[in-house]
TrEMBL record, chain A:
InterPro entries according to UniProt: Ada-like_dom_sf, Ada_DNA_repair_Zn-bd, MethylDNA_cys_MeTrfase_DNA-bd, MethylDNA_cys_MeTrfase_DNAb, WH-like_DNA-bd_sf
NCBIfam families: ogt
GO MF term set: methylated-DNA-[protein]-cysteine S-methyltransferase activity
PANTHER family: METHYLATED-DNA--PROTEIN-CYSTEINE METHYLTRANSFERASE (PTHR10815:SF13)
All copies of domain Methylated-DNA-[protein]-cysteine S-methyltransferase DNA binding, residue ranges: 92-171
Biological processes, Gene Ontology terms: methylation
Lineage: Bacteria, Bacillati, Actinomycetota, Actinomycetes, Pseudonocardiales
UniProt-recorded name of the protein: Methylated-DNA--[protein]-cysteine S-methyltransferase
Keyword Electron transport in record: no
Automatic annotation (TrEMBL), chain B:
Gene3D superfamilies, sorted: 1.10.1740.10, Winged helix-like DNA-binding domain superfamily/Winged helix DNA-binding domain
Species in which this protein is naturally found: Actinomycetospora termitidis
Membrane listed as a keyword: no
Family per record: Belongs to the sigma-70 factor family. ECF subfamily.
Domain RNA polymerase sigma-70 region: from-to ranges: 21-90
Region listing for Disordered, in residue ranges: 89-110
Identification of the protein by name: Sigma-70 family RNA polymerase sigma factor
């Protein structure tokens, strides 16, 4: 006896391959400092590390992302416009990475700046922790985040790599080092009364004759300056 | 499918790719009957696979080898479905529980062909949840009664009665619908 209801319940063939939605792929591709291992979901790059220990890469991927990962054939080109998939991150981590991604090429911002941008000015150390484990370095430019005094500080690919990336982007590393040595954290223009972070492109246009150096935002404020609305030095 | 559990033990990631290819058809069909909605069924199935992978991560080889993969995956799918509904109920602003049928846009011919039986979906949606789940697990996913009972977390007698009451109710709903339609 055939039961028409049971026949009706049996599902139609759903012609759909979910492999792309479920399985992430990884490949080796060229980055600005040499080859990198890069993993991607259907949405974008999920994880990137310097080429080397493939087994360690896969083990870390399984631990951190918890998604299946198989070798792929083509990798994305690595740059600021590469789409990323940060769904495995917490909302705080995503906010920190988004704020970091907003730093223009060739410029630097201190960790405290990122903390202010995400609305948690006291969470400077937490910002450092998030960036130290940035799942997608080179794409989200954590190499543009520096110590409070403007010195470059640590980087997961090494301090030398950090300097090289910034130099390749056109940063004036010697100029920034001179500001750090002079303990200058803000520079103002005595014609506009506006103070900027030293790497802000507005700061770079201030002529020597009109440049005023400050060792803190409070000092600039006391001198009657306001903060630049582009680099938002924190006021 | 001991070949597939062997593949998982050998290489969890590569083996899982085979598991997805092998089971996605039947899980998608089951998800379609649970949700009544094609897009939700695809999301639900993909989420269930990912949840299954996260669970497998922590299983040792013996535990993986002992799995009845099909029944286990259907159970994971069911739990994911229940979680989705719970979340949607808690946060109704976020899209809410999917209603059967009624696409926001005019469906193309391929979509109409792929969308399954809106009358059946509407009738299934009117069953009490546990009866709907029991019917779908037994007669769509084709699990046997002990597996249905285990997935639902009830005794076999209870599972059997949920299935038969669900089927009886479905017949009534579909019969009255056919009468009103003609």
């Amino acid at each position: 006896m055939t039961d028409s209801l049971l026949a009706r319940l049996s599902p139609p063939a759903v012609e759909k391959d979910l492999s792309g939605a479920v399985m992430d792929t990884f490949t080796t591709t060229a980055g600005p400092l040499g080859d990198v291992l890069v993993a991607s979901s259907a949405e974008g790059v999920t994880y990137l590390r310097p080429v080397g220990d493939v087994d360690g890469f896969r083990a870390e991927y399984r631990r951190r992302l918890g998604r299946p990962l198989v070798p792929g054939t083509t990798g994305p080109s690595i740059g600021a416009r590469t789409p990323v998939d940060l769904r495995a991150c917490s909302s705080f981590e995503r906010d920190v990475l988004d704020a970091t991604a907003s730093i223009p090429a060739g410029q630097t911002r201190p960790y405290g700046w990122v903390a202010r941008e995400v609305g948690s000015p006291a969470a400077v150390r937490a910002v450092g922790t998030v960036l130290a484990r940035n799942p997608v370095p080179l794409i989200v430019p954590c190499h543009r985040v520096t110590k409070a005094d403007g010195s470059l500080g640590r980087y997961m690919l090494g301090e030398e790599a950090k300097a090289r990336l910034l130099a390749d982007e056109g940063a004036d590393l010697e100029g920034l080092a001179a500001f750090t040595a002079a303990r200058t954290v803000l520079v103002g223009s005595d014609t506009t009364g506006i103070a900027c972070l030293p790497s802000c492109h507005h700061a770079r246009r201030i002529t020597d004759a009109h440049r005023v150096s400050f060792r803190s935002a409070a000092a600039a404020r006391d001198a009657g300056y306001r903060g630049c609305t582009v680099c938002r030095p924190g006021w | 499918m001991s070949d597939l559990t062997d593949a998982l033990v050998e290489d969890l990631d590569g083996g899982f790719a085979q598991v997805v290819r092998w089971y996605q058809g039947s899980l998608l069909g089951t998800a379609l009957r649970l949700t009544g909605h094609r897009a939700s069924a695809e999301d639900l199935t993909a989420e269930a696979f990912l949840r299954a992978f996260r669970a497998l991560r922590d299983y040792d080889a013996d535990r993986i080898a002992a799995l009845d993969l099909r029944a286990w995956l259907v159970t994971v799918l069911l739990n994911e479905h229940r979680n989705t509904i719970r979340t949607a109920t808690r946060r109704p602003a976020l899209s809410g529980a999917p209603l059967p049928d009624r696409p926001a846009h005019e469906p193309g011919p391929a979509e109409v062909a792929a969308r399954a039986d809106p009358d059946l979906a509407a009738a299934l949606a009117r069953l009490p949840a546990v009866q709907r789940e029991a019917v779908v697990l037994r007669h769509v996913a084709d699990l046997d009664v002990p597996a249905v009972a285990a997935a639902l977390g009830v005794g076999e007698g209870t599972a059997r009665s949920h299935v038969s009451r669900g089927l009886a109710r479905l017949r009534t709903l579909l019969a009255s619908h056919d009468r009103s339609a003609s």
